[in-house]
Every structure is written in structure tokens, then in C-alpha cells.
Specification:
This protein has about 220 residues and is mostly helical. The chain is built from seven helices and five strands; from the N terminus they run ββααβαββαααα. Helix 1 crosses helix 3, helix 1 packs across helix 5 and helix 2 crosses helix 3.
Length: about 220
């Protein structure tokens, strides 16, 4: 999940867990496409979950694991087997259709990642084959997925991995959501007040130090909030 990316020429472990998902300018990958162990979860290895058939390739085959990333570009948000854990956890919360799972993930990430149907439905089919989910009877064309006892047992074994995944999703969502209007207004007021004061007349050393002290105190109080 958040382990090492193989194939780096120097074998270094490059981690991006604390990177703002909006800072990946110029790349086509959604947040989390690279190994994301930097959030402080030592010893977390992607293969510990024991998904059948997990190897170095993506478990759903070439081209899967993708969705709509930031700016409408394609990118992989989850690593090997991660998406299935997320889906299984969401279904454990309540039975869901495929489109409801897509919406739940999109909402959780603040719109920074929206998995495609071509990602979600193969994952659901694999979960069903593994006995982790079942289809509720009488649902017609729209399949309502429910978790099985085997699926609940699997989630219990992988509880820590699920918690890490959802913290990563929450972090991506928090970074992607816009600032509140109140905060934008207050920030602009501060910049305007400072600009007007500097335009009015030059500052002597005492005045300059006083303004710097005010700004430093404000920064410290914000940091403690």
C-alpha cells in the first residue's frame, strides 16, 4: 500500500504522504500514485493484506486503478489492493451500488479523485469472486453489494491498513477543498491594511519592528489554534 516503489535506479524510498495533492503540477497522477509511507506508519507493507494474486503489477491488470484526477486528468490514486479495501469498508458501512461507491470516494477526497466505472466494477467483481461481498437478491439490473462474514473478517484483519487509507483520503480531501469565504476575507483585509500602511509613509525602525511583532504574534496564535 504505502511501501517502496520498485525500479528506482538508486533504490531510494521516495514518499509523498504529506504532499499537497494540488502541488503535483505537471504530472498526470492523482495523489497517492507513488509510495506514500511518509505519514509515519513504519513497517506497513502492501503485501501483508494477502490479496490473492497480488504481485508487482496492478491487481486489476494494465490500465486499471485509474480515475478522474485533479484537473480532469487520469491518474492512479490507490496502490495494489488498496481500492478493494476502501470499497469493502464502504460496503461494510451500508450496502451500496457501484455508482454510490464512486460518489462516496469522490466526496471523501473532496473531489480530488473520482474512480472510473472501469475501475470500480472490476474491483467489485473480484471482491465477489473472493467471497468478500455478495449481491442482494431482488435488485434487478442495479446490483446492490452487501458484505459477507468473510469480508468482515478480512476487514478486521486489515483494520490498520483501512484506517491509514481513509486518513490519506481525508488529507487529500482537506487539501483540495477551497478556503472558507471568511478566511479569504480576513486574509485579504490583512494584506490590504499592510499595503495601505506602507503606501502612506515610510516606516522607521520602531514602526517596522512593531508591525513585524504584530504579524509574528498573529502567526503564533494561528499555529496554536
Amino acid at each position: 500500500m504505502f511501501g517502496f516503489r520498485r525500479g528506482h535506479p538508486h533504490g531510494h524510498d521516495h514518499r509523498v504522504a504529506d504532499r499537497n495533492p494540488l502541488d503535483a503540477a505537471g504530472g498526470d497522477h492523482a495523489p497517492g500514485d507513488h509510495a506514500s509511507g511518509g505519514a509515519g506508519y513504519p513497517g506497513d507493507h502492501r503485501h501483508a493484506r494477502g490479496w490473492p494474486g497480488d504481485g508487482h503489477d496492478h491487481p486489476f491488470g494494465p490500465g486499471h486503478g485509474h480515475g478522474r484526477g485533479r484537473g480532469g486528468r487520469l491518474g492512479r490514486f490507490f496502490e495494489h489492493g488498496d481500492l478493494r479495501l476502501v470499497i469493502l469498508h464502504l460496503i461494510a458501512q451500508k450496502p451500496r451500488h457501484g455508482y454510490e461507491i464512486i460518489k462516496a470516494i469522490e466526496d471523501r477526497t473532496g473531489g480530488s479523485y473520482s474512480p472510473s466505472p472501469g475501475t470500480i466494477y472490476p474491483a467489485l467483481a473480484m471482491l465477489e469472486e473472493q467471497g468478500h461481498v455478495a449481491i442482494a437478491p431482488g435488485e434487478g439490473a442495479k446490483k446492490l453489494h452487501v458484505i459477507t462474514d468473510q469480508g468482515r473478517d478480512f476487514l478486521a484483519v486489515n483494520r490498520v491498513a483501512v484506517e491509514i487509507l481513509f486518513r490519506q483520503m481525508d488529507k487529500a480531501g482537506a487539501a483540495h477543498r477551497p478556503l472558507s469565504p471568511q478566511l479569504v476575507r480576513a486574509t485579504e483585509n490583512l494584506k490590504l491594511a499592510l499595503r495601505l500602511r506602507l503606501d502612506r509613509q515610510p516606516l522607521d525602525a520602531v514602526q517596522l519592528q512593531a508591525i513585524c511583532d504584530i504579524l509574528d504574534r498573529a502567526a503564533s496564535e494561528i499555529d496554536r489554534t
